[in-house]
C-alpha cells in the first residue's frame, strides 16, 4: 500500500517527510520513490507532519500504535478496511483517523487514483477536514463512512476481489494443466465482469449450476478428481448458486 | 444462445433457413431477428440446410437428437461445452459436430463475436471443414478441440465465469444491504480482473485470507451471521486460499 500511496501523494503535491517500515529495505524503497523523503530508523523520534499514515496490515496497526511516539495532538490515520476507529481509543494523546483506499494493491501495478474510493473517518471534525483535503487531492470518490459501514464495504470487497481472484487462479491452473492458453478465457472473463457491473449479477447467472444440468456437473466433478479440495469447493459453489436461484429467482437462460 | 447466434450468422452473410424451439415464442423471436427465417413447427419435416445447429442446453441435446428427423447425411452440430461428440454415435444417418462458443450469453448483451473463441469438433473431415468455414466467418479465434479438451476448457470457464459471477452477486447483495452503491466497487473489480489477466492470479492474491489476518476474518464472519450459507462459503473460500498459498507460494504483500 505504501509503495503505491507515497508516490501518489508526492505527485499530488504533498511532501512525504519520512517513511518507516518494519523492514528497512521496504522503507528505503518507498522513500526512494518520493523526492526528499527520509528513511526513519525508529518510531521513537518521529518528525513533525500534518498527518501520519499507517499503511500497514490490519493486524500490525495496534502494534505500531503501541510502539510509536507521536507528537502530542498528531493526526494519525490507518488505511485498513476492517479496523474500527476505536483502535485509537487507548491513545488520547493522538487524534485518530481512517484513510481507506478501496482497491487491491500488488507490486508493479499502476493505480488509477482519481477513481479509487477513499473512505474517511476521524475522531474529530478538524481531523476529518484534514483527511478530506488530502483525499480529494488524490481521488474524485471521497466519502465519510463509519467503522461499521467500512467493515461491511470491506467484506463486500473480499467477495468482489479476493474470492473471485482465487477462483480465477483455479481456472488458470486447470487451463494450464489442460495445455490451453489463459488468453482463451479473456473474452469470457471480460464479458462476465462487464455484465456483472451492468446487471445485478444474480440475474446474469449462467452455467450448469443454475440450470441444474446434472450430467455436466457430474462430468466436471469427475474431471476434478485429482484436486479433491477444488472438487469440494466446486460442489459448495454449485450448491450456493442453486440455493440463491431458488431464493432470488435467477435467469435460467441457456448459455454457457 | 440462439438469440445471439442467429443474428450473428445472418450478419456474416449466412442464410438462417429456419428456427425451431421447445417454446414456439422463442422460435418466433429468434426467427424475427433474421431476415427470411421460417419458424419450424416440428422436428419431423426439417428443411434442407448446410448445417443444423443445436443451440440447446446440454441436457436437451440428446432429447432433440432422438426426436428430430434430419435429412440423411445432414451435418448436425451442438454448441455445448461439456457434451462429447459421442452423443451423435447412436445416429449414423447424420454427421455429428460441435460448434462451441466460449462465452456467456444473457438477453440484451451485445456479443463481440470476432473475439469469441469458437471450438470445433467433427466426426469427419468434410464436417470439420464446413464448421471451420462457418466459424471463421464469425470469429478470429477458431480452434479444433477434442471432446476431452473442450470439457476441460468448459470447466475452467465455470471457474472463471459462473463462480466469480455468483460471488459478485453475493457482494452486490451485501453492499445493497449495507446501503452502499454497487458502483463503489467497480474500480476494485476492474483492477482485480485486469490484474488477474496480466499476472498469474494466484500470485496476485491479496486480502485477509492470504495474509492470515485472523482478526479481520473473525469480523467478517461475524458480519455474515445473518447469512449462514454465505458464512460457510466464506470459510471454505478462505481455507482454500490459505491451502493454495501454502502450496503455491503467494504474494503476502499487505494490501486490501
TrEMBL record, chains A, B:
Pfam families named among the record's database cross-references: DUF2520 (PF10728), Rossmann-like (PF10727)
Domain of life: Bacteria
Record InterPro entries: 6-PGluconate_DH-like_C_sf (IPR008927), DUF2520 (IPR018931), NAD(P)-bd_dom_sf (IPR036291), OxRdtase/DH_put_Rossmann_dom (IPR019665), TM1727-like_C_sf (IPR037108)
Residue span, Putative oxidoreductase/dehydrogenase Rossmann-like domain: 4-89
Coiled-coil region(s): none
Domain DUF2520: 116-240
PANTHER family: CONSERVED HYPOTHETICAL ALANINE AND LEUCINE RICH PROTEIN
Protein name in UniProt: DUF2520 domain-containing protein
Organism annotation: Hymenobacter swuensis DY53
Amino acid at each position: 500500500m505504501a509503495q503505491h500511496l507515497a508516490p501518489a501523494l508526492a505527485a499530488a503535491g504533498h511532501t512525504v517527510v519520512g517513511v518507516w517500515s518494519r523492514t528497512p529495505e521496504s522503507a528505503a524503497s518507498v522513500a526512494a520513490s518520493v523526492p526528499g523523503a527520509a528513511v526513519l530508523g525508529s518510531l521513537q523520534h518521529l518528525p513533525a507532519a500534518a498527518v501520519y499514515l499507517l499503511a500497514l496490515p490490519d493486524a500490525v496497526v495496534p502494534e505500531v500504535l503501541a510502539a510509536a511516539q507521536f507528537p502530542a495532538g498528531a493526526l494519525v490515520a490507518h488505511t485498513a478496511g476492517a479496523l474500527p476507529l476505536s483502535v485509537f481509543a487507548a491513545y488520547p494523546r493522538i487524534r485518530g483517523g481512517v484513510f481507506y483506499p478501496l482497491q487491491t494493491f500488488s507490486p508493479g501495478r499502476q493505480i488509477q487514483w482519481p477513481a479509487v474510493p477513499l473512505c474517511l473517518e476521524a475522531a474529530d471534525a478538524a481531523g476529518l477536514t484534514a483527511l478530506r483535503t488530502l483525499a480529494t487531492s488524490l481521488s474524485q470518490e471521497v466519502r465519510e463512512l463509519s467503522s461499521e459501514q467500512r467493515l461491511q464495504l470491506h467484506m463486500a470487497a473480499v467477495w468482489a476481489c479476493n474470492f473471485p481472484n482465487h477462483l480465477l487462479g483455479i481456472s488458470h491452473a486447470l487451463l494450464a494443466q489442460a495445455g490451453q492458453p489463459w488468453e482463451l478465457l479473456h473474452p469470457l472473463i471480460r464479458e462476465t465482469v462487464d455484465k456483472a457491473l451492468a446487471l445485478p449479477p444474480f440475474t446474469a447467472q449462467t452455467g450448469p449450476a443454475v440450470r441444474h444440468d446434472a450430467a455436466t456437473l457430474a462430468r466436471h466433478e469427475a474431471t476434478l478428481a485429482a484436486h479433491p479440495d477444488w472438487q469440494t469447493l466446486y460442489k459448495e459453489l454449485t450448491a450456493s448458486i442453486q440455493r440463491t436461484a431458488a431464493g432470488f429467482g435467477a435467469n435460467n437462460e441457456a448459455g454457457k
